[in-house]
Amino acid sequence: MPKRKVAALEKVDADLVSLQYKIRRDPKSYAQEFYDQWLAYDAQRQIFISSPSSASSEDNKKFHDLVDLIAHCADLYPDVTAPYYDQLKELLTQHHAVLNPDLREKVVGSLSLLRRKDVIDSTSLLTTLFPILISTPSKSLRSLLYTKIISDLRESNSKATNHKLNRTIQTVLHNLVTSDRTSTKGMWACRITRELWRRQIWTDARPCDVMKEACLSDNEKVVVGGVRFFLGGDKEREEMEDDSSDEEIDVKKVKHQGTINKKTKKRQRVMEKAMEKIKKQERKKHAPHPLNFSALHLIHDPQGFAEQLFQKHLQNTKCKFSLDNKLLVLQLVTRLVGLHKLTIISLYPWFTKYLTPKQPSVTSFLASLAQATHNHVPPDAIEPLVIKIANEFVSEASAAEVASAGINSIREVALRQPLCMSETLLQDLVMYQKSKDKGVVMAAKGGDMGLKSGEVKRLKFGEEQVESGIEGIELLEKYKEEQRLKKLAEKGEDADGDAKMEDEDEDGFNSDEWEVASNDSDSSTGWINVEHSDDEDEGPPAAKKQRRDSSAAPDLISDEAMAAAAEANRISKLAMTTILTPADLAKLAELRREAQLDKMTGNVSKRRQELINKHIEDGVTADDIELPAQIGKKSTKEERVAMAKDGKPGREEHKSTQAIRKSKKEAEGKSSTNKEKARKKNFLMTVGKAKAKHKRSLVDTKKRLTAHIARSKSGGRRRNGMN
Amino acid sequence: MGSSDKKKREKKKDFNKAKLKVGKAKAKAANFTDTSFKSKCWSSLISLLLIDTLANYIPAIVVNQHTLAALDGVDLVGLFKQHLNQAINSKSDKLRQEALVQLTKDLSSKPIFNPVGVPNLLTKLLPLITDSVANVRTNFLKLLRALPPSDVAPHVEKILMYIRGGMTHLSTDIRSDTLSVLEWLIEVCPDETVSCPGGWLKTLNSFSSMLGWNPSVASTLSVKGWTSATKTSLNKVSKKNGEAQAKQITILAKFLEAGFRPETPLPYDEQRYWDSIYRMPTIPNPFAYLNLWGAQRDEDGEMYPDRISRVQVFERKWRAAIKTGVMGAKQEGGVIGRAASVLDKVLRTSAAADGEGVRKMVVEEQETVEEVEEVEA
């Protein structure tokens, strides 16, 4: 039988893709065709529903194509396609387990397409997808749904925060976590919340509440998910922010390329895009920083939360979490205790069991103990722990690492609650400065100083140091004094006596100022205690002066305290008596910055700088405790090799540095030099010239040479029409 | 020279000594005969003799090619299944077609040879309604015709689904071939066709969409002004399309006739009465009209099991649309016009059978007459 000739139009019409194209171009004229396909879709759907599990591949494919067509045209015929969303939803929720993977993907894609075309709203899409995400056993479907959910949430929050939707979803997640505490379904709540937190789409207290509930779940996985969020979620968020601002475009380069390259429409578009991006980045730079609180700060009722966490997962002997996970929970609990200055008395006795050198990952326990200590913890509660650490860890017989970890942890604890140390113990520890091991010495040196100064001890339990006045006001005052003196000196000899007096005054002020400053830094954080002890190290001249003063005028000593009080009064008076002008404030800021810089650049070790930079909110980690032990250690060869290789270009094969550089240059698309070009030139091209050179007459040669000399004198370039 | 070399080599080959290798079986000789098989069946000669003798004793035994083949040791069931698979899965249309022919042969043999059963057969083969090759479709229809009507009846709903899918297919050929399937179905089991869930309204939907008589599309279009929507490519009026449309109208008439056919009350039978109360029902899904387990049905997907309900819903939803369509088709004349007048007759008889419908009919008749007069004027 001969092949039937098909009319051109019919032929083209026979596939759905071109029909879709036509429908979208002219929906009115193709309404009939669309309706036909709608009926076909309906029939195919019923075929599928009549036997979902045993649908043939042919039927599946047909259905797949029709679903696709309808989804793309659904916005054009809202009347006809009104039941479409419900049908897809029903199909997916009822048969997602037996659906063919391709078809399933298409249905999910069509649903999100409907969302993008605004046929349905986000809430209905998410409430459709979410229950399936939780219940489906298929991994591929889960990952698909997860990405769709996240992208839809991002999309609907992109222009302005969609509070209503966020609240709905957060409620759903909250219910998911709280409804069945033993199931792993809460993992999805954790994952979604964490992802949206990382992208700064959710930044308020509600997601924290979801995570809080996750932490209190019975399922180990869910608990770990929640705990990890609180311990690392904020850092992740910051990193994400840094990453996004990383891709910077070199404006100069882009402009330069624009002048050189051929001007095509595509290039222009690329350039416009780049400029747009730059503008966006600029705008972002100048935009006020979003006030994002860390998750730990947004927790509602931290005391209750910490107590519950501790009782449920740590104190409870029936809890069978692995040690690692328990440690994570412990970290969170202690971090909360330290940060919010909570009181959980039963936490400290609980530690006793774990503070032995044989305990696996004991440094984490030590770090957690340090974290859990603050000035409101009764010293009685910690003292036995400190003594136990001293007994178990710190002895001549124990290994250097153990001793240094012990001393270091005692130091960290004592920094936060100095009252927990007794005189004898302190003296004992100080003796370790003479140990042979470098790590132990470092730990001991760090430990005693803050305590030796004695000043810290003056505070009684429960006493708070209240910060008063304006930070750095004394710097401004000093500066003003200096300025006044300068002026006086310029004025003449008249004020000589005055000046002397001022000088004395200033001396006294200086020494006092040091004290006040130290007080100031003390009060703000436990961390800066270290820094303060540092000040003492740096400031022997001031201390000496003080001592000298006292020896020279013994009657002054008793008055010293009074003088300090008077000084404090005087300083506060400056702020009270005069009005600080904007210029003053600017100067104050500058002085403060200088003082900070001095602290940083002065004779300060790397470790100290790190400590200064470290924020109070970053808790103590096991690494901090182990650090001193690393100091004396020799690195292995592998480590040294790795260190040497770090930051150098990769060398897969044996190659010269030049060759590597060259290939890198080529990879970057940079051009070659004239010299390189000359070197690479085809030999046959140069051979003629070389031969001709041999045949030149003497006169010719001379002419060339003289021309060469003349040329080099006039800049070394051949001009037009000259040799 | 070359040929002599070749000849030499070939000659030499016969005298080459076969190399023996460790761990490998010895090469078989050229004249080796495999005698290791065991016969599980009788050879045909013996079987023929045997059947002859058996037939003498047991006259009821039916001998046909299948029993013979079975006795020969051919795996008939396997063969049938292979044909079935070929009919669905084979890429080549020739193979599909031949497989269908084979299946038809098996099904039309006496007694019917169908090892997989009608339900399975239908589930597997029904997607062929919309096969892209015309020959396959016609052969499939032949196969359907070979099926016993009583076995088809329980699966009418499913067949109708595929028919509806085919009726709105993009290709006109497939549409018209699907109509032939529907025609067959109406012939075989008319009552089930119009009374199964979705069988009445949904099929009417598809018909009207096919013929372009659809009121719901017009409403979505919301065309204002005096012109109607231009008929697009698929409904072009050409000679071929005209025939197709005539066929569509004819089959629509058959369909409606089946739907409007007056039910003859069964004579009272005491046994049947008591059976219906106390015996297990003999038909599958006897309470289908209650729809106890299926998904909720909408108006279109509902069952219209009796004539009255069918007529009512037809009056409400379709009569006006089809009426106008018929008027248009009649005016076209020719094949279409003739088909339309048949359809018109069906509509009239249905209305005549219904008291209320008659009155309506009269009113409409007057209107149409007036319209015609207007057109003529």
From TrEMBL, chain A:
One of its GO terms (biological process) is protein transport. Residues 670-714 form the SDA1 C-terminal domain. Residues 489-556, 630-723 are annotated as: Disordered. Pfam families: SDA1_C, SDA1_dom, SDA1_HEAT. Coiled coil: none annotated. Its main location: nucleus. Residues 70-436 form the SDA1 N-terminal domain. Residues 704-723 have a biased composition (Basic residues). Residues 489-500, 635-656, 665-676 have a biased composition (Basic and acidic residues). The keyword Iron-sulfur does not apply. The keyword Protein transport applies. It is found in: Nucleus, Nucleolus. Keywords: Nucleus, Protein transport, Ribosome biogenesis, Transport. Residues 501-515 have a biased composition (Acidic residues). Residues 523-647 form the SDA1 middle domain. InterPro entries: Sda1, SDA1_C, SDA1_MD, SDA1_N. Residues 518-527 have a biased composition (Polar residues). One of its GO terms (cellular component) is nucleolus. Required for 60S pre-ribosomal subunits export to the cytoplasm. Belongs to the SDA1 family. PANTHER family: HSDA/SDA1-RELATED, PROTEIN SDA1 HOMOLOG. This is Protein SDA1.
TrEMBL record, chain B:
Residues 151-256 form the Pre-rRNA-processing protein Ipi1 N-terminal domain. The keyword rRNA processing applies. Gene3D superfamilies: Leucine-rich Repeat Variant. It is found in: Nucleus. Keywords: Nucleus, Ribosome biogenesis, rRNA processing. It holds the Pfam family Ipi1_N. GO terms for cellular component: nucleus; rixosome complex. SUPFAM superfamilies: ARM repeat (SSF48371). GO terms for biological process: rRNA processing. The keyword Nucleus applies. Component of the RIX1 complex required for processing of ITS2 sequences from 35S pre-rRNA. Component of the RIX1 complex. Belongs to the IPI1/TEX10 family. This is Pre-rRNA-processing protein. It comes from Sordaria macrospora (strain ATCC MYA-333 / DSM 997 / K(L3346) / K-hell). The lineage of its organism: Eukaryota, Fungi, Dikarya, Ascomycota, Pezizomycotina.
